[in-house]
Specification:
Chain lengths: 143, 191
């Protein structure tokens, strides 16, 4: 037979201690109140209050359990509604507007970074040309 | 069909005699649970009264395929919780209640005095617990309900009930071991 290890012994003593405590609680509390009953006038007071209330209704079956599956039904309704709304909202005018209702787009030129770079190149070229046209000193042949 | 389910069915049809039968069947255990949780006899009677009035109002919704007792306990414990929240202390009549509860004329005066002191210590120790631990201790040790039933009544998992009982026992052991009124033989958990 394998001797119980320390943990098992600890658990046993702990359980025994809890059992003892449980017995103490039962003896102290349960036994001391086991014979006690509520006063006799509690029931007439309950009866008086209950008579002023409406009779408890039987549970309504439909509110707790519906005899057919609800989820597919709800899904079908939602999908149908969406399709109907799409069908009503989308007609030929919406997809292909008539000629008179079409808006003519006017082309515009936006200044882009490419055109700016081209301007810079051109201005550099002009500057170089101007420099070439300026008079140059070559051996004092200025007239 | 269980007897309780039959009573519920009759109550739903407006039969107040059936309701009275139900009251007399459960009045004692519900009253004792409320008394052990609140420590006040007058409040326990009020809780019992409110419990049955509420139960009557909700009789149309009760699931008759399940036992009725845990459902009634649940109402009573919730009402006790409300009472504890309103009165965050034990009633002044606590000492009188203890004297009234633990008086045992059959025992010898010496034993009765000793026993009453021990019981008083235990009641006070249980009263020092928080509501959740106290309710678990009362329902498990005093009312003898199963862990599953307590879990339903307190609306928590079974593991939580076990945990509350464990920590409640730990706290009670500490409290009782520190109580000077108790002799060594009843002071638990000193090791």
């Amino acid at each position: 037979m394998v001797p119980p290890n320390r943990n098992q012994e600890d658990n046993r003593s702990k359980l025994a201690s809890e059992d003892d405590l449980g017995q103490l609680i039962r003896w102290s509390m349960k036994d001391s109140i086991s014979e006690i009953e509520p006063a006799a006038d509690v029931w007439p007071q309950i009866l008086k209050r209950v008579r002023e209330m409406p009779a408890p209704a039987r549970p309504r079956r439909w509110s707790t359990k519906i005899p057919f599956p609800v989820a597919p039904f709800v899904q079908a309704v939602v999908v149908s509604a969406l399709l109907l709304a799409f069908g009503l909202g989308v007609d030929q005018n919406t997809i292909m507007p008539r000629e008179e209702h079409r808006i003519q787009a006017t082309p515009t030129i936006h200044r882009s970074s490419t055109t700016e770079a081209l301007d810079d190149v051109l201005s550099g070229y002009k500057l170089a040309q101007n420099l070439r046209e300026l008079p140059t000193r070559r051996g004092g042949n200025i007239r | 069909m269980s007897e309780d389910a039959e009573l519920v069915s009759r109550i739903r049809n407006g039969d107040l005699d059936a309701f009275e039968t139900l009251y007399h069947r459960y009045k004692r255990q519900l009253y004792q649970a409320a008394l052990a949780i609140t420590g006040d006899a007058g409040s326990a009677e009020e809780i019992l009264q409110d419990c049955f009035v509420r139960a009557y109002g909700a009789m149309g919704r009760v699931d008759t395929s399940r036992p009725l007792a845990p459902w009634l306990y649940r109402i009573a414990v919730n009402l006790s919780y409300n009472w504890i929240n309103r009165h965050r202390h034990w009633p002044l009549s606590f000492d009188m209640l203890i004297e009234h509860l633990i008086a045992n004329p059959a025992a010898s005066p010496e034993h009765a005095a000793e026993g009453s002191e021990v019981r008083e210590c235990v009641w006070e120790a249980v009263a020092s617990l928080g509501f959740k631990q106290r309710a678990a201790v009362v329902l498990f040790y005093v009312q003898g309900l199963s862990l599953q039933e307590i879990a339903y009544i307190l609306d928590c998992p079974v593991g939580t009930v076990k945990s509350r009982l464990h920590y409640a026992c730990k706290a009670l052991r500490k409290k009782l071991s520190e109580d000077r009124r108790l002799t060594g033989e009843v002071a638990y958990g000193t090791s």
